[in-house]
Amino acid sequence: MAAPGRGVTIADVAARAGVAASTVSYVLSGKRSISPETAGRVMQAVADLGYHPHAGARSLASRRAGVIAMMLPLRDGMHLPVLMQFASGAVTEARRHDQDVLLMTADEGPAGLARVAASAIVDGLILMDVEVRDPRVEALRRLGLPSVLIGFPADAAGLTCVDLDFTAAGRACADYLRERGCGDIALLGASEAVYARRTGFAERVREGFLARSGPATVQPCPDDPVSVQRTVKELLAANPDLTGLAVHNEPAVGHVMHALADAGKRVGEDFHVVVIGPDEVAERVHPQLPSVLVPAETLAETAVRHLMRKLDGLDVPDSTLIEPQLTIR
C-alpha cells in the first residue's frame, strides 16, 4: 500500500507483486523476457494499485505522447479485412489530429490495458470486439485511461460507446426476407467461438433478427468452404420450407451461394439471401445481394474524434448508434 500523501510508485507495485522493482520495469517496458506468471502478477498489481507513471505530466496537453492505442484482438471468427477497415479509419482520423495509432492485436484482456496505461506511451485507447460481459470494462473504469469503445457491453455506465445499431440491422434483415414472402427463414452467423464469448455485435444481430422473424434458426458457422457446404445442406434438410437466409459471416458469403446453387436454389427467385457486411462482399457474388453495410471506417473515425474531444476536456455523447442502411441490389 502506498504511504498516505504520495502517489503509487514502481516500488509499491513491486512489493504488491512480490518482485524486484527492476522486474516491474522490464514487464512494463518489454525490454526483457519475463515469465507469463510473473508478468501476470505485475500487471495485476498495476491494475490493483492504479499505477500511472508521470501522471502529472501526462495531464498537460503539451506533454501528450501523441499516440492512441487501438485494442483490436485477432480472435477466432474475426474477419481480418473488416478489422483492417477499422484500423484504416482510425489511422486516417488520428493523423488529422497529429496522432499516431498503436495497434494491439494480441488478446491480452485486462492485463494488456493495465500494461498500456502504466507505460505512459499512449494518451487514450479505443477498444474493439466488445463482449456483452467484457472483463476489460472494469479494468477501464479502474485505470481511468481516456477511452472509447466500438461496441456496447451490457453495463455501459460511465463509458463512451459507438457502434452500428446491430439490433436494428438484424430486424432489417428479417423484415426484408418476410417482405419477399419467405416461408421459414434463418440467420447464418459467425463461428461458434464468436457466440461463445458473447460478442456484442453478434448477440444484438441475433436479438433483432429473432424479434422480427418469429421462430427461426440461428446457426453459427465456420467460414471454410467445407463447413459452409455442410451447414447449408443441414439447414435445408432440417427446414424443408426454408426460403430465406440472412448471412452475418463475411467470408462465408461466396461459399453460401455455391452451396445453395448445388442444392438447386435460385437466389433472387425461389430463395432470398441478405448480408450484413461490407458492400464488396455482397457485390462480388452472382447475383449481387442486398446488404446492410457495417460502416467500419466511419465507426473508427467517430471513435477517434470522440477520444480526441475527451483528451481535450470536451463533452462527448455516452452513446452513439449509427442507423443501419439496407441496400437493395
List keywords for this structure.
434 Repressor (Amino-terminal Domain), 46% helix, Rossmann fold, HTH_LacI, 6-stranded parallel beta sheet
Account of the protein in words:
Residues 6-45 form the HTH cro/C1-type domain. Residues 8-62 form the HTH lacI-type domain. By secondary structure, the chain is α/β, with parallel strands linked by helices. Among the domains are: 1-51, lambda repressor-like DNA-binding domains (434 Repressor (Amino-terminal Domain)); 166-292, Rossmann fold. It is 46% helix and 15% strand. The protein has 14 helices and 12 strands. The protein has helices at residues 10-17, 21-29, 36-49, 55-58, 80-96, 109-119, 135-143, 166-179, 192-196, 200-213, 225-238, 253-262, 279-283, 296-311; strands at residues 67-71, 100-104, 124-127, 147-150, 161-164, 184-188, 217-219, 242-247, 272-276, 291-292, 319-322, 326-327. Strands 2-1-3-4-5-11 form a 6-stranded parallel beta sheet, covered by helices on one side. Strands 7-6-8-9-10-12 form a 6-stranded mixed beta sheet, with helices on both faces. Helix 7 links the parallel strand 3 (124-127) and strand 4 (147-150). Helix 5 packs parallel to helix 14 (296-311).
The name of the CATH superfamily of the domain at 166-292 reads Response regulator
Q: Largest sheet at a glance?
A: 6 strands, parallel
Radius of gyration: 23 Å
Helical percentage: 40-55%
In the sheet with the most strands, the strands line up as 2-1-3-4-5-11
Helix-strand topology string: HHHHEHEHEHEEHEHHEHEHEHEHEE
At the fold tier of CATH, the topology name of the domain at 166-292 is Rossmann fold
**Amino- and carboxy-terminal Cα gap:** 63 Å
CATH architecture of the domain at 166-292: 3-Layer(aba) Sandwich
- Ranges where pLDDT stays below 50 over 5 or more residues in a row are 54-62
How would the global form be characterised?
elongated
* Count, helices: 14
According to DSSP, the number of beta strands is: 12
